Every structure is written in C-alpha cells, then in structure tokens.
Amino acid sequence: MNTQTRIAVIGAGIVGCSCALWLQRKGFAVTLIDPEDPGSGTSSGNAGTIADYGCVPVNSPDLFKRLPTLLTSKDSPLSLNLAYALTHPSWMIQFLRHCRTDKVNHTINQLGQLLAKTYEGLDPLLDMSEARDLMRQEGCMYVYRSQQEFSKANPSNLARRAQGNDYNELGRADIQQLEPGLKLPFERGLLFPAASHTVNPLSLCQRYFECFQRNQGEYIPQRAVSIREDADSVSIQLDGGGQLQVSRVVVAAGAFSKTIQGIAMNSLPLDTERGYHIQFSNQQHLLTRPVCWNAAGFYATPMEHGMRFAGTVEIAGYGKTPNPGNIAFLTRKAREMLELPDAPDQEWLGFRPTLPDSLPVIGYSGHSKNLLFAFGHHHLGLTLAGITGKLIAELVNGEQPSHNLAALSPQRFL
Question: What letter would DSSP give residue 261?
C-alpha cells in the first residue's frame, strides 16, 4: 500500500476528482486542492454525454473554406473575439496548422484509441461512488436537416465507424418515431445505440468528491499559486499563505492550469475554448436521449431538472464577459428544435481547456519526475476523465500505463 505517500491533485472538476479516486484505489493518500466547490466549474455545465464516439476534432481540412461563413453568419455555432485572436496569434496559427489532413487523421486515430477505453476508467468510479443512478443508456442521436447536410458529414461519420463506433443510419420517419418531440423536420440522422449520458454532471462530480472524502481524502479549498520542487518532494504555495509539502503533484485544473507558477507551462500552448448552455426547467420529457443538431453545434440533453442545450465554440479566453450573441443563438435554435417557453431560466458559460491539436496532455511534465499533467481535454473532459485518472494513477504507482501515452505526452510540444 502507498498510504504514506501523499499526492496532491490540483483541480476538483471531473478530471481532478477522477484522478483523486483512482489514486486512492491504488492506496495513495490524496489531497485535492481547488478554491471553488468541487464540480462547480466547467464540469457542471457540459452536455452530459459520454461521447466515446467523439474522435473527430473541431480542426478539419475544410475549415479554411468555411471560416469566413462560420465567423460572420448569425446561424454559426463558432464565434471569435478578434481582439483576443490578434493578441494570441501563436495559438491560432498552431490550431490552423493542425487542420491539415495528416494532422487531423493523427488526432482522430489517437482520440479513437483512447476513447475506446472510456468505460475502463469510468465504470469502476461509478461503482465506487455509487453513482449509477445518475447515468442513462438510451443512445445518442445526430440529426441533419437535409440529405446534403448529411452527405457533408459522411467523412466524419465514416471516421467514427473506422474507430469502432457503430451507428444506425436514420431516415425522417425513424427520427420521428424515436423522438416525436422534435418540432423541425430532420431528413437524416444517426443513432449511436450504445451511448450513455448523465442526467446531472454536477451531481456526478459531487458523488465522486463525497466518495473521496469517505476514503479519508483531504480537501483544501484554496488556490494553488505556485509549485516548487525540492530534493525529494514538491512544495505548493497556497493563496491563503500556507504551504503544502507532498511527494507528487497532478495538475488537473483545466483551462486554469496555466495560471499556476513554476510548472513550466511556457512550452504548452494551452488556451480556452468557451462553451455555453441554456436550460429550460421541467422540459426534459420532450426527448428520450441526447440529440445533437450537427450543423448548429450543440446537444439537446434531457437532464434531471430540465432540457439543456449545450455547445457552441467561442475563442475569447476566460477573462472576457459572456457573449450575449451565443446565448441568443442557442435560444433561437432550441426553440426551432423543440416546443419550448420563450426564454430559458438558466444561462451558463464554461471554459474548455484546449490545445491546438485537440488532444489532451496526460503524463509527466517533462521537467520533473514529481509533476504530472492531466488537462486539455477540449470537448471530452467528462468522457475521458475516468481513463485519464486511471492512467495517471498507473504512472504514479510505477506501473506500465495500460495505454500508450506517447502521443499525449506534454513533451510533444517541447
């Protein structure tokens, strides 16, 4: 057992809590550090989907052609803060560079291999935290307004199938039979029959945290300001003025990981992709499963307390105020899709941690044998949290990781 070895995990979102639980499963004493309530940040507002079919990145070879329309159309799920882009040109250039076909195919293959192990990481945590009541397995549907729209998406869908994600193709009648609450006529669709989702992402993370505390986990509700490595340990400076001495540190603070001093983040092009959701209370009966309107860039997911519409992409950093245009877009499209009240009663903005190749960093920092990174999961934080935690715990325990981490190493940017 490793109970005399204390590991600190910085970040109490779904990735951080998953790392903490997997480390406890290996017998380590674990301290979780986060100034906010566990799960209350980006982890709380996602679409709730366990998207093990989500191997196709936002980067795509045709993005250059579509970019002007995407950035100027009122019906676009993508928006860009020009001032932010001009002050962060390096990240934008790297992102566009990864839109090349060979780069996109590399990302699809690497994500596909990791996503295939989603439930290896997730299932033990659901059992450990007694959280299966928060999960549903009703499949996930993608819908398209026209045959032309469906045909344009065919290369991406074939890439998913090549990675082992089988689906059923749907016609208009099939869609109506499966989801009669849809108001718009969708001509074509896909059903991923094995897909699952959670009806409450915040409660799921809270269950993990409660389990962590039952297992004698220590929680420090402060911000980690800086990290300093000593001879055989790591010292963490907290914003309350105190210091914490531990054997190793796992940085899993999402988009805010780069605010921690002393962890050699200069070489990592971590940035923020902002996502939004709106929610209509007591409307969850309108759908049976998550439905992704592909062209509109969002999911409609029946949650425990309402119907949530989550998605869109905004490049603007985490220092800017919410963009009312994104909320208006989601509200307009949601009311086109389903019979809903005039306005949602919940609006939310979250910060997805994003690297330009759309792959996370999982592994040792490259600068220290006592510092590990687990962030940059883009749109797949909830989906990949469990397997990320499992891999981090294997590394800390000195085991050969159960997945080849070479393509996910932080050192790929050095």
Answer: B
Over residues 255-304, the pLDDT tens digits come to 999 999 988 777 789 999 999 999 999 999 999 999 999 999 999 999 99
CATH code, domain carrying 405: 3.50.50.60
Q: Report residue 1 as tokens.
A: 């057992």
Neighbours of 84 (CB within 10 A): 18
Q: How far apart are CA 302 and CA 346, in angstroms?
A: 14
Side chain identity at 126, as an amino acid letter?
A: L
DSSP letters for 354-371: E-TTS--EEEE-SS-TTE
Tell me the two tokens of residue 249. Answer: 């540190």
Q: What CATH number is associated with residue 314?
A: 3.30.9.10
Q: Rounded to an integer, what distance in angstroms lies between the CA atom of residue 100 and that of residue 93?
A: 12
| pLDDT value of position 79 | 79
Same domain, 182 and 280: yes
Number of domains in the chain: 2
Closest CA to 53 of 158, 136, 135: 158
User: Quick check: is 129 in a domain?
Assistant: no
Q: In this model, does residue 215 exceed pLDDT 60?
A: yes
Its domain, for residue 364, covers: 6-43+203-268+358-413
pLDDT for res 347: 96
Residue 60 to residues 96, 100, 169, 217, Cα–Cα distance (Å): 9, 7, 23, 42
Q: Which of 16-20, 92-96, 284-288, 358-362 has the lowest mean pLDDT?
A: 92-96
